[in-house]
Structures are given as structure tokens and as C-alpha cells.
Specification:
alpha+beta, 55% helix, 9% strand
């Protein structure tokens, strides 16, 4: 995603909803009624969530017109008469009023069952992105804001931070550049967007597949094989994560794992390597145009390290500290491969499979059996009960409200102690065609104080792709899916609990370094006995929750191969930093020449295979 889209699109990935007790059956199917329900007033929430294509187009027009009007008014303020009231307050109020309207235009692209509505939403997104970028490039408004900073007017700390962020956004978008350089910047950014799109299209090609025999797929679960399309006596394996990951985890045939891993890694092939190298060049030119040494410094400047040098030092230090642990873990996997296949040559394609095998040896846990303890409805109800208890909240469902699909539910959130109204969240967790394919949270409205003294409350949407009930049988979740939903719902609670005065700092719009911290901390509850018992119950008898032995095994499984996993993350970070601190780069040469101190032990063993992936 380009920097301009990151700064103007606030779709934060997270999650969930509300209920009262552990064994409570949510009965989602019983709630389904009419597709379009009556519109009713929701105190503190101003946006509509089920717009038609025509309504989206009109709303986008109004947003752009009001934004231009406000920016024009600020630009007209004489530089010797600037004040917070006439230069800054109009922009804070504009953000507060327009954020929920913008999100009302963007959400349908992710959730609407109507193709026309999705198209209108996608088109509105392009128009709004383009407009907001132009706003942040307005030299006349930038001069007024800078004049205000030089006057030294006393304002509060949050207002001071808002002005600092405003100035930074203007300057990062070229407001200080000459007209000629600004046009050059626009060409570079347009080229970057085009290359990004081509790269993603190449990687996202869903038509590529391999045909494999059942012998080549030895070790795969029967239910997985049944789901594969059969062609000329062979199984059609799509080169998507839904097929590739299970095969890399379970297939006993090493040559099949290598075939799949290389084919999957080569999606986009040499074309994408060339695109990446071109992107590096253009990003470097953009960064230099804006006054930065390289693109990495430009990208990191708003974050805590502030410079690429500090990031590289941190990564090197972490890599060195993990080396002993990672080497011991790799040795364990090599020993397992020698025992099973009689071959010590360990490849990237072996990593997931032998991690699984090691887990089976060291952890007394049947993941397939554990899944039977996590019916979707029970997981959701238990999770919501957990968050209500943890944060002294009360969730109340609001019925007969207009939503974009019959399975969507809306809840209001209250402070259980003071009975203060805190916000709302929508729960849209079941899979359907055309819906966004990952679990995430969309911030629909930010909590903030408006100029007229009224409060806007935070509003969030949890999106997921949970399976639906079938023939009256509750759908089951894999444990990683349970953790993912819990993680995402933590973002929802974080968003709704925020008490910022300005929309700019509300909930999910906080500083990027901190965005994931609350959810990463809270997801650890998924490995504690008290919370697992709330969220689990055998699908045929929900009074039987996950045993204490099982949750201890889940915790041990989580902590296994921590060194290996972190080393892989560090490798990706290092490659990213190294290529973006350069003006020009040959990706293959870079991988070959990575300094031994920062190279992962995996690449020390697997150079040739890694190049096959590229």
C-alpha cells in the first residue's frame, strides 16, 4: 500500500462482539430476518452503513465539496492573524465529522453482497484517496499552519501533537516542494502505485495449480483430499495458502513438499523480481526528492526508531542473540528428517512438516481433536463474556437495525460501573461470497469531542470468515482461528475504550508502533485455563470444556521453535531494510551476499533452494 493510502485510509485490522454467559447459544440463524431493516437513530453515531451505489457516489461528492470548502477557508486566513480557532480547529472538526462518512463509503467494498455497491465503493475510495492527497499537498494551507506554529499560541498537549502531525503530513506529501518537483513526485507515486498493483496481481493469481497423485499426497488428511477437484485421476492443488500450507505441514513425500514450495514461491517469478528492483529505484528517488537519505529513512521517520540505522542495529542484535537457540532447534529438525527420510539435507520445504512432527513427539495434543471443542457460537459468546469481565463492560444487542447482511449483528457497549455509553460494534463473522477474506477490524467512527460540545462515540466492525452451521451442526474453529478472532476483538475493545479529544488520535488511529501491542498482550488469555474454559465446549456436549492438560499442551506448542520463527521474521525485516537503504539493488546478489552476522541460519543451509523461490 502506498504511503498516501496508509495516511488516509483507516482500516485497521482487528476484532468482535457481545453476550452474557459461557454456554449461551447465540442462535445466529434465528436472528436473520429481512435484508433491509428500518433505519433507527443510534446516539453518538452519525454514519449510515447500508448505502446504495447512488448514495455512495453522492456522499463522496459531499465529502469532497465540504473538505475543499474548509481547506479554502483555512488558506484564506491572513498569516498575521492566524490562531488555533481559525487555522487548526476547522481541520480538527472536519476530521471528526468526515471520518465516519468516509468509512461509510469504503466499508461496502469489503462487505456488500451487491456487485454494483462494491464497484461504487471502490471507485469512491480512489476519488477520496486522490482528493485527500491533494489536500495534504496544498501549499497555501501549509503556510497558514506553519505560521500558526511560529506564533507560539498556548494550546494543550493533544492539540500540540495534532499540529505536529499536521505539519509532518504536509511535508511528507511534498507541500514544501516547488511546483516542478511536486509534479515529479506525483509521477513517481503514480508509477509506484502501478508497480505495486502489478506485483500484487502476479502474486494473487488464483489460476495456477499442480496435478498430484494420491501417492504424491501421502499423509494428507482424507477430508483435505476430498475437497480437491479430481482431473485425469489426479488431484488439483491450487497454489494458494489454503492448499499449500496444509501440504507443507502434513505431506510425507519430501519431493512433493519441495515441488509445492518452489511453485508457490515462484508465483510472479522473475517478473516480480524485476518489479521489486524497479520499485526500489523509484522509492529511493521519491525519498531523495522529499529530503531523505533513502526510502527506509522516509518510511521509518514517523516511528520510534526514526532512522534505518537504528532498525538495522536492533535486527542484528536480535539475530545474534537468537542464533544459539535457533541452531539447536534446527538440529532437532534435521535429526527428525534423518530418522524419517534418511536424508540430512534440510530444505525450506521441510520446515513446517518437521515442526509438526516435533510437536507430535513433544506435545501430547491432537489438533484435530481440539477443534471439536471450539464451536463458533460458543467461542464468540465465551470471548465476549471474557472481555466484559476483564474490562468491566456491558454489551447489549440492538435488534431491528439496518445492516448490510442478515447475519450481521450490532451491539452497544456500556461501562458496567458508571453506565456511561461507550460505543458500538458490528459483528460480521460468517463467510459469504464476495466478502473480504480475512479477519480484521474496520473503524467506522472515531471517538472525539466536536466543536458544539457533543461526543461522537467509537464504532467498529469485526469481519471474519467463520464457517456457518450445516444441517443443525455447529461449525468448528481451529485453535489458531480462535486466537486470531480473540486478537482482533482486542482491537475492538481498544478502539471503543479510547478517550481522545481529537478524532486523529482515536482508537485504531494511534501511533503505528503501539497499534498491535494491546492485542498481542491480550491474546495470551487464549492460553490460560480460565479463558479457555469459557470459550470451549465439546461440540456434542458443551458442558465438557478443554482439559487443563490440553491448555498446557497448547501453551507448550505456542512456545516451540520460537528461535526459528523469529529468525525468519528478522530475515524478512533485514531484506526489507537493506534493499530500501540502497539506490539500486540486485535481489539475487543481495541474498547471496548477506553478511553472516545478519544472515539467518536457514539461508546458510539453503541458498540454492531460496533462489529457486525467487
Amino acid at each position: 500500500m502506498s504511503p498516501r493510502r496508509k495516511e488516509k485510509r483507516v482500516v485497521a485490522l482487528a476484532g468482535a462482539a457481545a453476550l452474557v454467559a459461557v454456554g449461551l447459544n447465540l442462535a445466529f440463524s434465528a436472528v436473520a430476518a429481512r435484508r433491509r431493516r428500518k433505519r433507527q437513530e443510534l446516539p453518538g453515531f452519525t454514519a449510515q452503513v447500508n448505502l446504495s451505489a447512488t448514495e455512495i457516489n453522492r456522499l463522496a461528492d459531499r465529502i469532497i465539496a465540504k473538505s475543499k470548502e474548509t481547506y479554502d477557508a483555512v488558506a484564506a486566513v491572513p498569516l498575521d492573524k492566524v490562531s488555533f480557532a481559525n487555522a487548526i480547529a476547522p481541520l480538527t472538526e472536519l476530521d471528526a465529522q468526515q471520518f465516519p462518512l468516509v468509512q461509510a463509503c469504503l466499508l461496502p467494498r469489503m462487505v456488500s453482497p451487491s456487485a454494483d455497491v462494491c464497484r461504487a465503493s471502490a471507485e469512491a475510495e480512489k476519488r477520496l484517496d486522490s482528493h485527500f492527497l491533494l489536500c495534504r499537498q496544498r501549499e497555501d494551507v501549509y503556510r497558514v499552519v506553519k505560521a500558526f506554529t511560529e506564533r507560539g499560541e498556548r494550546i494543550g498537549p493533544e492539540a500540540t501533537r495534532f499540529v505536529q502531525c499536521l505539519v509532518r503530513e504536509f511535508e511528507r506529501n511534498g507541500a514544501k516542494l516547488t511546483q516542478t518537483k511536486r509534479k515529479e513526485m506525483e509521477k513517481l507515486r503514480s508509477h509506484i502505485d502501478d508497480l505495486n498493483l502489478k506485483y500484487i496481481q502476479n502474486v494473487s493469481d488464483l489460476t495456477k495449480f499442480l496435478l498430484l497423485s494420491e501417492e504424491e499426497l501421502a499423509g494428507m488428511p482424507l477430508e483435505f483430499l476430498k475437497d480437491l477437484e479430481e482431473t485425469d485421476g489426479k488431484r488439483k492443488v491450487l497454489l494458494t495458502s489454503y492448499h499449500v500450507t496444509p501440504i507443507l505441514e502434513h505431506c510425507k513425500v519430501g519431493s512433493t513438499r519441495k515441488l509445492i514450495a518452489v511453485a508457490y514461491g515462484q508465483k510472479g517469478g522473475k517478473q516480480n523480481v524485476a518489479i521489486l528492483e524497479k520499485l526500489v529505484q523509484i522509492r529511493h528517488r521519491l525519498a531523495r526528492l522529499l529530503g531523505y537519505s533513502n526510502y527506509s529513512d522516509f518510511a521509518i521517520e514517523p516511528r520510534m526508531p526514526m532512522t534505518s540505522r537504528k532498525v538495522l542495529e536492533f535486527l542484528e542484535e536480535m539475530s545474534e542473540q537468537l542464533s544459539d537457540l535457533a541452531n539447536r532447534e534446527l538440529g532437532l529438525l534435521k535429526d527428525l528428517k534423518m530418522k524419517e527420510e534418511g536424508d540430512a539435507q534440510f530444505g525450506m520445504e521441510d520446515l513446517l512438516y518437521y515442526m509438526k512432527r516435533a510437536e507430535q513427539h513433544k506435545v501430547d495434543l491432537d489438533i484435530g481433536e481440539i477443534k471439536r471443542y471450539f464451536p463458533v457460537q460458543l467461542v464468540i459468546s465465551g470471548m465476549l463474556k471474557m472481555f466484559q469481565d476483564l474490562f468491566a463492560l456491558r454489551f447489549e444487542e440492538i435488534k431491528d437495525v439496518e445492516v448490510w447482511h442478515d447475519t450481521v449483528r450490532l451491539f452497544s457497549v456500556w461501562d458496567a460501573s458508571s453506565s456511561d455509553h461507550m460505543g458500538y460494534f458490528f459483528l460480521d463473522i460468517f463467510s459469504r461470497e464476495g466478502k473480504y477474506g480475512h479477519t480484521c477490524v474496520v473503524a467506522l467512527q472515531n471517538g472525539c469531542l466536536c466543536s458544539n460540545g457533543t461526543h461522537k462515540v467509537p464504532v467498529a466492525v469485526l469481519l471474519s470468515q467463520c464457517p456457518k452451521e450445516f444441517d443443525g451442526n455447529s461449525a468448528l474453529l481451529r485453535f489458531p482461528e480462535v486466537v486470531r478472532i480473540f486478537h482482533e476483538f482486542s482491537h475492538v475493545v481498544h478502539h471503543i475504550s479510547n478517550r481522545a479529544t481529537f478524532s486523529r488520535f482515536s482508537g485504531l488511529r494511534l501511533e503505528g508502533d503501539f497499534a498491535e501491542i494491546p492485542s498481542l498482550l491480550l491474546e495470551n488469555w487464549c492460553y490460560e485455563s480460565v479463558s479457555l474454559k469459557m470459550m470451549s465446549g465439546f461440540h456434542q456436549d458443551i458442558t465438557k470444556s478443554v482439559t487443563s492438560e490440553a491448555y498446557q499442551s497448547l501453551k507448550r506448542r505456542r512456545d516451540m521453535f520460537a528461535g526459528l520463527k523469529l529468525k525468519q521474521e528478522i530475515l524478512l525485516c533485514l531484506v526489507d531494510q537493506i534493499i530500501h537503504t540502497s539506490e539500486d539493488v540486485d535481489i539475487n546478489d543481495l541474498i547471496k551476499d548477506l553478511h553472516p552476522k545478519v544472515r539467518t541460519y536457514i539461508l546458510n543451509n539453503l541458498d540454492s533452494l531460496y533462489f529457486d523461490y525467487l
